């Protein structure tokens, strides 16, 4: 490719990143703005972060959202990873293709439709069995875990379907039982997909607005719901501080996750390189 072509690719890439990250940069910048003093210029300060710490309603909503995400995402990971591995390895059972196609429905279906469907489901169950008694944290956890499980299953299925089956076959030939093959071969190889699915389920649960609006009771307002309600009334600079903290936390979690995955890959490659000379020497 010519030098001009490389330059155009660089320009397009820079414009794409600017389009994506300029609004986030503005949020971070405005979060450090304080009240205007005698000069009439606000300057940089931690005023809105201090105001955020004094806002008990937002702090309660943030704790509730974090608890909801920490409860629903592990449940979604267990269910979704089990379904993804089963669909990738159990190839001959009736309805497999239909189940794979059904995984995409919660991902692409409108959230309004999903939220209303969950609301009708829980209302019908309460009318027939008396459970659950109203809307609250339990209904939110079930709904978020269900939505997250479909995402985890899709990610894990794509990961496991591309794995080399000769490793699992070799473990079975050496006498390993199916559960041992799953624990020692399949799950470690599928770990990046499982971890990615968990992060997606965690993020989906933490920032969900529509489904939570259908299923949250009056005392279970989540942070995204509080932010959405606040923005509808007027712009609150404390929201910039919340957005900055959320972006920083997500960046930290993603960075730690990628570092752990790279360290694990290097450790496995180093162990494999060290085992090869030993086998040759033996």
Task: Please give a structural write-up.
It is a single chain. With 282 residues, this protein is mainly alpha-helical. The protein has a domain at 61-237 and 245-263: MetI-like (MetI-like fold, Orthogonal Bundle), CATH 1.10.3720.10. Helices cover 80% and strands 0% of the residues. The chain is built from twelve helices and no strands. It has helices at residues 3-31, 47-53, 56-89, 96-102, 105-108, 111-129, 137-161, 165-173, 178-206, 210-215, 223-233, 237-281. Helix 2 packs across helix 12 (237-281) and helix 8 packs antiparallel against helix 9 (178-206). The N and C termini lie far apart (50 Å). Mean pLDDT is 86; it is low at 36-40.
